Amino acid sequence: MNSFGTNFRVEIFGESHGVKVGVVIDGCPSGIALCEEDFLTDLQRRRSGKLGTTPRIEADMPHIVSGVFEGRTCGTPITILFDNTNTKSGDYANLQDHPRPGHADYTGMVKYGGYNDPRGGGHFSGRITLGLVAAGVIAKKIIDPIEISATLTEVGGRTDIDECIKETMQKKDSVGGMVSCTCKNVPVGLGEPFFDSVESEIAHIIFSIPAIKSIEFGSGIAAAKMLGSEHNDRIIDASGKTETNYAGGINGGITNGNDIEFRIAVKPTASISQAQNTYNFASGQVEPLEIVGRHDACIAVRVPVVVECATAIVLADLMLRAQ
Amino acid sequence: MNSFGTNFRVEIFGESHGVKVGVVIDGCPSGIALCEEDFLTDLQRRRSGKLGTTPRIEADMPHIVSGVFEGRTCGTPITILFDNTNTKSGDYANLQDHPRPGHADYTGMVKYGGYNDPRGGGHFSGRITLGLVAAGVIAKKIIDPIEISATLTEVGGRTDIDECIKETMQKKDSVGGMVSCTCKNVPVGLGEPFFDSVESEIAHIIFSIPAIKSIEFGSGIAAAKMLGSEHNDRIIDASGKTETNYAGGINGGITNGNDIEFRIAVKPTASISQAQNTYNFASGQVEPLEIVGRHDACIAVRVPVVVECATAIVLADLMLRAQ
Amino acid sequence: MNSFGTNFRVEIFGESHGVKVGVVIDGCPSGIALCEEDFLTDLQRRRSGKLGTTPRIEADMPHIVSGVFEGRTCGTPITILFDNTNTKSGDYANLQDHPRPGHADYTGMVKYGGYNDPRGGGHFSGRITLGLVAAGVIAKKIIDPIEISATLTEVGGRTDIDECIKETMQKKDSVGGMVSCTCKNVPVGLGEPFFDSVESEIAHIIFSIPAIKSIEFGSGIAAAKMLGSEHNDRIIDASGKTETNYAGGINGGITNGNDIEFRIAVKPTASISQAQNTYNFASGQVEPLEIVGRHDACIAVRVPVVVECATAIVLADLMLRAQ
Amino acid sequence: MNSFGTNFRVEIFGESHGVKVGVVIDGCPSGIALCEEDFLTDLQRRRSGKLGTTPRIEADMPHIVSGVFEGRTCGTPITILFDNTNTKSGDYANLQDHPRPGHADYTGMVKYGGYNDPRGGGHFSGRITLGLVAAGVIAKKIIDPIEISATLTEVGGRTDIDECIKETMQKKDSVGGMVSCTCKNVPVGLGEPFFDSVESEIAHIIFSIPAIKSIEFGSGIAAAKMLGSEHNDRIIDASGKTETNYAGGINGGITNGNDIEFRIAVKPTASISQAQNTYNFASGQVEPLEIVGRHDACIAVRVPVVVECATAIVLADLMLRAQ
């Protein structure tokens, strides 16, 4: 449900405007140096404040409350908590009656019989990814020397990204984007056959990040137009290095030692400042809804670090599962 | 590893040229009418014999050996076996030294320390999807009245699909394709928050099917170019129906009652009849490799039924998990 | 590892002298009334302060930090935290060199390569059962009207329990005890065949409680001396009620509607105030070890409520798994 | 449900009088020598034919149909099948109306809504342990040099075991027994904290074996009468060896390098040749039931090898989970 992984297991909890959000990481090897400062760089990358992101600034300070002793992981579950300090619950009244388009207000309400926490998206909020980033910071230490790097490559189909976001903000609108991710120094042989292929595991965790609409590995969608004689990556040396990398570093669900490469599409933020006509379950009418509050014009800006951390979690788990 | 699902659990086994391939389905409710004939339509759809598919014809007869009593599921694990009868192992000698490009020969060899079964791709063969189809046939009964339909929409970027495949075969090459899938009559509220979103679960199982390179839900990759004001699906009535379906029937990882829609890219079959230059680990040289044997010119032709069945497995599991 | 359950999943974390201990409960249905006061009765029962238990008194106040909104569970993970306030770490120096007999000091040190938190037993401490009790309080609400009752029936083989404990304390020793548990109003049909039999699930969670040495269901150990003609419980009415209950309410791993009955043996507390001769890894000698600090003379006194709560977790999970 | 294990996973299937019973073993390392003959010794030990066991003799020939290539495990799921050849289904008519006392006829019928396979106990039959033994034979190879030995120590409270069984057979009755198990050469550090303690894992799998009523580790039930000063096992050398072994080789759920020791009680076989008065759901009366067919007078005779194999599965899984 809210956990992921077999030997490196991550359990996420919290609601956007609840008391705390956080994560429990079970199965982390003992003896890894870990302190709260280690999380700050990636948390800062995820944090709001840059162009296109919400003015809501949380302290985002991680508190390690279990699993670390004298600066090292002790092999038992690591719990990291974040306080929710800057919550304005008044902003989110009447979402149950008049659910926001593109959000989980309606699905959450039906799934949980009206008992879901609607404030700020509750458990469906992007704020829940704080725990994912925290777990990913630890995972990155485990998978060293694998290096994962994700970057925003396009916004609204354009590469002048800042400009595109500014224009979007002026229109009181939001805009989508593309994120690319590359993993270097990957050993050959990670991944499990059939259901736990590397693509399956990465896609599984990536689609748990809010707002992701697609994932492509290597050649991706272009593969559908290609011939086998083009697409097959010829091995060129005894390390398994291939001439091309249409496979995206994975054959038969198993890493082949070349870079893992994938790209994802991020939808435009669902919250926009324009009024939107949508159904009001109380009145039984389609009526304009205005969403007050604070929004990211381009949530894709904040996604790369989350993608890196999610990918690190997958690779850490696969490494610990490999015999 | 080779199992999928929480409450409806599928375990796949077998190698392409081993004694049998098959599947165990655990958690199927009791009392569902089931006999061997029920599998034949979907198995036939998956089977070779159509244009662009391999001349290797297996009997593909399913044998139910547990879990069914007097024509109904009895609540205990259902095991379905398929014999491998038409195997020509001689075709696949020396793959360990000179692994085929685009295949799992090299990754399988490294992962399993040289002990993998290389014949016909072993456990990495598409033949293993027989068990997935068998499990999906049962899942379709559980999720009724949900209807899942997948179709091949493009081959090599073209819609004159048969023509494209014929030309490809004349070139002794292979070609990729696109498959679209739609699920109708889906109840609101399936899916689990965060890690077990509907997209996560579907993507997980879809990427276990060999040759899949991408998956997009609803707007998919196009979302990256869109504005929020376009992309947000306005709800228009009390059933939750939306004007557009960029969400692909899913908000916050939970079904919203609109059709689930996704598309996948299938790579060109890795086996082609042309010689390919690739590394020979025995000689230490890049050398031409000729792959004798029987190949599908367009494996995408056989993918739609497998996608339907895989999706049915996910939805059956999510329905049985829903309280 | 530190999680239990399939559809009602409990993740435990914390070290005795760390910052916090706690629990995440995933899969709890939405809409259940829940507030912090609900936990106090069972926490008080578990708490120290009675005869034979440690003078260490923690506030043991539960803090719900996620998963509850306006006094009801919202369907998302429920996190409950407990502060560790009354820790005297100085008491536990040099356990790494001179591990206490009957404790996990040595096994924890080897398993975690010397990085375990040795203070107060760390993650092996009985204090970790706070989270189990908290989860059990919620589980009891789910399984209503099932009633679970566990009681201490013997201490040191005697039924004058208080007297036996007093004598033990005067000897600066500790003593074991027996706990019996009965579950009433159990529906027929809980449990899963083979590996997830009711006995398997209950035994699994019961043996995660520190200090448990045995478990017997129904006739238990006496069954080994009995004849089938005596042991078979004859059904006497259409409700499935049986004349005797040697089965302990379970046949073939499935509940039969009669009371679930089991008994467990609890070992004497490992910490005693007497000096004990045991190996010192630093000196390479068997040497006397004195354990200063605060000890329960009879930990069995605190076990019944933990057993009830653990059993409730199992039954809640099995109920949510039943179709 | 019918699977056990995390990294070494066993899935059991089949009904007593169905087509086949068997097992899929997922996660077995590659490169282990394995052929069908390897199973015969333990299968023979489990097999009927000795004093006190049923005259039903199955060929019990194992058929490996996946996961083994050229005499070695290939890292993919290993499937082992057994044919059911000697089935007399006529013996088991009308069990749905007049369920046998001490059997799962009634619970199975209710759980599965009347769709269970009642013939010979269906999936609840001891015959299903064939798969457990097969998986255990493989597990024993993985855990080498750990040696597991289980023996029948008492029948009906007596040690003149053959004599006791003969007398029981003459009375057309059945009788229970005690089985002891010891594991030697166990490394320090196996087991996971809290929920996956070694005792939890062993007890879980042992209670999936039909007819088990209790399990005790080390001191077991006697611990309830002991003092801490007696019960604490003093470490006497640098290997962690202890003077006594009341812990049964386990502290804090983790192996301590001393022998793992546990004992179990096996109930008398539920099927006896005497008529028994029990409720007939068709007539609404308590009426005599005669069970024709073939029965073990003392099923405990066949249990030791199953206990060994089940324990080997646990230890193999824990070894593969240990980092």
Shape of chain A from CA axes? globular
- What about the largest sheet of chain A? 5 strands, antiparallel
Approximately how much helix is present in the residues of chain A? 10-25%
Number of helical elements of chain A: 7
Mean pLDDT of chain A: 94
Query: If strands are numbered along the chain, what order do they take across the biggest sheet of chain A?
Result: 1-2-3-7-4
End-to-end distance of chain A, in Å? 27 Å
Task: Note the topology.
4 copies of one chain form a homotetramer.
Chain A: E1 3-4, E2 9-14, E3 20-26, H1 40-46, E4 63-66, E5 68-69, E6 72-73, E7 78-83, H2 105-111, H3 129-143, E8 147-155, H4 161-170, E9 177-184, H5 198-206, E10 212-217, H6 228-231, E11 250-251, E12 254-255, E13 260-266, E14 276-280, E15 285-289, H7 303-321
Antiparallel strand pairs in A: 1-2, 2-3, 3-7, 4-7, 5-6, 8-9, 9-13, 10-13, 11-12, 14-15
Helix pairs in contact in A: 1-7, 3-7, 5-7
Concise structural overview:
4 copies of one chain form a homotetramer. Chain A is an alpha+beta fold and 323 residues long. In chain A, 22% of the residues lie in helices and 23% in strands.
Keywords:
homotetramer, 323 residues, alpha+beta, 5-stranded antiparallel sheet, 4-stranded antiparallel sheet
Could you explain how this protein is built, in words?
4 copies of one chain form a homotetramer. Chain A is 22% helix and 23% strand. Chain A is of the alpha+beta class and 323 residues long. In chain A, the strands form 5 sheets. Chain A has a 5-stranded antiparallel beta sheet with strand order 1-2-3-7-4, covered by helices on one side. The first copy, chain A, has a 4-stranded antiparallel beta sheet with strand order 8-9-13-10. Chain A has a two-stranded antiparallel ribbon with strand order 5-6. The two termini of chain A are 27 Å apart. At the B-C interface, loops of B face loops of C.
